[in-house]
Predict the structure.
Amino acid sequence: MTLDVREAQSLASCAATLQGKFCHDCGEKAFDPHDHSLKHFVAEGFHTFTHLDSKFLQSLKLLLSKPGVLTREYLAGRKKHFMKPLAIFIIANLLFFLFIYFQARRRRL
């Protein structure tokens, strides 16, 4: 993407016109084709597991209280305040398997 195209782009999260790599209004990062590379995916995965923040709890709360709203928001492009779907899926599975493991271990004792 050239800078001219990026300047004319607007974000779905805040509808502000993008001027540069990040939104001056909400701080969301502009889409870059590099974001879909394997190297970027691995780096994001590592970052997700080492830097949990309130995005996970907010996403989980919305997922449990209003199913479908989180998906609708993400598909509409409003991603800034929520965790990425794959990260939520992986963390939820990890928690599930840890729960099963400790339940089975407790029953053996």
